[in-house]
Amino acid sequence: MSIALDQVTKRYQSVPVVNDVSLKIEQGEFLVLLGPSGSGKSTLLRAIAGLTEIDHGRVSLHGRDVTGVSARDREVGFVFQHYALFRHMTVANNIEFALRVRGVRAAERRARRKELLRLVALEGMDDRLPSELSGGQQQRVAVARALAHRPQVLLMDEPFGALDAKIREELRRTIRQIQRELGIATILVTHDQEEAFALADRIGVMHQGRLLECGPPDDLYTRPATRFVATFLGAANLLLGYRTPDGVRFMPPAHDDAPPREVVAVLRPEEVELAAQSGALRSNLVGYAEVQEVLFAGSSERLRVRMLEDGPVPVAPGSDDATSSVLEVSRTLPEQRDLPVAVGGRVAVGARRIHVLPTPISSFTVVAADARQAQVLRDSPIVATLAARMVTRVSTRLQRGETPPPGMPVVATGSGSAAMVEWQLRHGATQLLCMPPAAPVPTHVVIFAPDALVRDATFAVAASLLRHIPAETIYLAIHPESTPQQSRGACLRELLDARTAALTRHGLDMRTETRFGDVGPELLRELLAHDQTTLVLGIADLDRLDWRHLADLLEGAVQRPLLIVRPAAASGAGGGP
Amino acid sequence: MAAGFRKPSVLPGFGLTLGFTTFFLSALVLLPLAALVFKTSSLSWQAFFEIMLDERAVASYRLTFGAALLAAVVNAVFGFIVAWSLVRYDFPGRRLLDAVIDLPFALPTAVSGIALATVFSPSGWLGQKLALANVQVAYTWIGVVVALILIGLPFVVRSVQPALVEVQRDLEDAAETLGASPWQVFRRIVLPAVMPALLTGFTLAFARGIGEYGSVVFISGNLPYQTEITPLLIVIKLEQYDYEGAAALGFIMLVMSFVMLFAINLVQAWGRRRQAAAGR
How far from chain centre, in Å, is Cα B77? Predict the structure, then answer.
């Protein structure tokens, strides 16, 4: 293992910018850390180099724990975005710097310098000053300089950021070649996905300080696990679909006892098929659409089509506003020749291949007594933030209906809410968000799941929530006061198991705490300890549930947002309506 | 526009500003200096050399130039440290300290001199303590140096500060990842980048030290042959209506200052050239 990171965390003014990142990189592997600016990727890279101290976690290089070791003793090569060449030194002196400070003899230094200049294709430039070189050449010098002391790890922080497109591509090829030739473990940080695809053996996508997913480029592209990775790596249409016995469909299924199971599907623009009639489609029909925009892009054609309400109703991402049901389409030139379309034309839209995200939270439906209250809930900080960050739909339902809505129902806490929550749960709702409309976005999330049966589903929902809201997370285990001293050790073991499960299965890292006492009061106490707290509550058996405690949480003097998770598997045991 | 001048900038008024520059330089700098030379030239060569090589005058040159040089060196070191801490660290009162640096600029120099003399006199706060260690500052050459350090400090700090801000953190980080120790980072990366500004600050402090009068006369004690600076000697000659003698001493100071500043400029230019040609 060349580089091993274990729960690396870095905070600035108590806000985590790198949040529990664990990662392993093999000898000779090229990893690209990809993320938008501010996602913490550069900070993580600096932490590996030792230029930034970390608050928590461990960094190992070649099996050596270097967490407390200074940058100069870590033996890494670091390439900066703006080259960071020593302007008062020639190319030769720049490259030899690492050897000079190590007291290497002049002859040896010269031989190494010649070798490196050949490697970066800058032979004969020894005596130039950095100011006499082009940007691309300067970055080549910087790469050569970073490799002079034969580091075992090469770290590059947006090395092509300041270069124009053509030179960038050329330098990219050089770097890939050098990296292969030296077999050196390399991490490159960038926000450019094209660059990531061109260079990486593996891509790690970072967002809000977390490493969301890490894997081979084609895996991440075809089978992303999160909305963010799906939309950040290449273009993607996120669609809401329904899981039916025949596979995922985009029309709501016929009336049924249970609420339809909603899923989030990724439809890549190049997987969209357009046809004049639905009969001419060779793939599954998504719906009909009107062509809104046609752009010729050289080797392909890009279109935007707006889904129409007549015919099968498509469910496109976004809230109910105008941009919500627009699909991005990309067609090859032969496809374009077969069916030329013009703006305003009507087409049938099919999906050749979709990928269903394993995310448990699909969409939100506000359930309220009147339109005004519904609007208040829609505009509440939590719903608005989550919908925007998840790029998902928020619908409204003023009547309760026969069955709970698909996705996540949202109800207001307060008097009468306990009855509503009970009805939703008893009629098959698997998740439910209850909150005071003015509740702020949480900075503190408490997770509680009464038994192992619901724990996994609870973690899945909590992980999905926490991917979109950076908050401190604490998993609470509550055992009866009467638990004998000798079995309290087992409680602790169970807690550690839970933590491992959350981390490995859902990428969710959290603190854990054990309490001894009654569930209701203990939960209430924990919720009142912080202002901006949200509880993620797993519920197993509706008949054994203490509804009085739940009513306390929902209708008590101080109400906190409550995300109830009741896995579908548990509903059989719990008894439906 | 006359050929041979550099092409004027987009701002108008090239002719006007050049005219002003020439006029003010002539009226305020060159003309008085010419008068000084003219007045001196009324002396015979023998009289001139007599004044120049007078034992009391020679002792004053030594003190004036020696103390100014020593003070400038001290300021170069400590001024750099002050500038460093102002630029690189954030601490409570940093802005206040930053403002205090300029005080010697604004204070009448006589006030500084009287204050120093009070503090360092054998009965003053610091003078008492130093007397125990058998060190006397006030009314000795050390007092002169102390006064000149006070006067020269802002020149160094204000010259070095912007240059330090310019040194990119990236450069130091790069040197660190390449294995340089903190001292090596300083010696090979930071210092070369700041050197031109430091030399400028040194030169300004030195030049100011040579010409300083107000603060020094109060703390030096003005003992002939011992703690008497050349500017004071000139004033003494003026008070005795010995205008030619005063002009001659002034002329000598003018020449010596010019030679020294010119030499420093040469060193600076040489440094720049050497840097540009390094390794070529």
Answer: 14
Q: Of B178, B275, B276, which is closest to A101 when you measure between CB atoms?
A: B178
A45 reaches B (C-beta below 8 A)? no
Minimum distance, in Å, between the CA of residue A84 and any CA atom of chain B: 5
Asked if A433 reaches chain B (Cβ–Cβ under 8 Å), the answer is no
Spatial contact of A185 and A153, defined as CB atoms under 8 Å apart: yes
Query: Is B102 in the A-facing interface, judged by CB distances under 8 Å?
Result: no
State which residue of chain A sits closest to B276, comparing Cα positions.
A88
* A400: number of Cβ within 10 Å: 15
Q: For A266-289, give one letter per residue: b (16+ CB within 10 A) or e.
A: bbbbbbbbbbeebeebeebbbbbb
C-alpha distance from A7 to closest chain B C-alpha (Å): 23
The SS3 call for residue A530 is: coil
First and final CA of chain A: distance in angstroms?
Answer: 54
Least Cα separation, residue A131 to chain B (angstroms): 10
Task: State the Cα–Cα distance between residues B176 and A98, nearest whole angstrom.
Answer: 9
Please identify among residues 144-173 of chain A the ones whose CB lies closer than 8 Å to any CB of chain B: 145-146, 148-149
Q: Tokens at residue A542, please? A: 């509706």
C-alpha gyration radius of chain B: 23
Nearest CB to A88; choose among B173, B176, B193: B193
* Residue contact A80–B173, C-beta within 8 A: yes
Q: Would you give per-residue pLDDT tens digits along chain B (280 residues)?
A: 444 556 556 667 778 888 888 988 888 888 888 888 888 888 889 989 998 899 999 999 999 999 999 999 999 999 999 999 999 888 899 999 999 998 888 888 889 889 988 899 888 888 888 888 888 888 889 999 999 999 999 999 999 999 898 887 889 999 999 999 999 999 999 998 888 889 989 999 999 999 888 889 888 888 888 888 999 999 999 999 988 889 999 999 989 888 888 888 888 888 777 666 544 3
A52/B contact by beta carbon, under 8 A: no
8 A C-beta contact, residue A153 and residue A23: no
Nearest CA in chain A to B191: A88
Residues in A touching B168 (Cβ below 8 Å): 82, 84
Q: Is A511 on the interface with B (CB under 8 A)?
A: no
**Minimum-distance CB partner of B177 among A49, A87, A90:** A49
Which runs of E-coded beta strand occur in A221-312?
Answer: 237-244, 247-249, 261-267, 272-275, 284-296, 300-307
Closest-CA residue of chain A to B170: A84
Inter-chain residue contact A98 with B178, CB threshold 8 Å: yes
Per the CB < 8 A criterion, the answer to whether B201 and B144 are in contact is no
Beta carbons of A84 and B174 less than 8 Å apart: yes
Contacts of B110 (CB under 8 A, 6+ apart): B214, B215, B218
> Residues B8, B10, B11, B13: what is their CA dihedral angle, to the nearest 10 degrees?
40
**ipTM of this complex > 0.90?**
no
Domains of chain B: 46-270 (1.10.3720.10)
Residue A91 CA to residue A113 CA, distance in Å, equals 9
Task: Map out the domains of chain A with their CATH numbers.
Answer: 3-232 (3.40.50.300), 237-356 (2.40.50.100), 364-574 (3.40.50.12370)
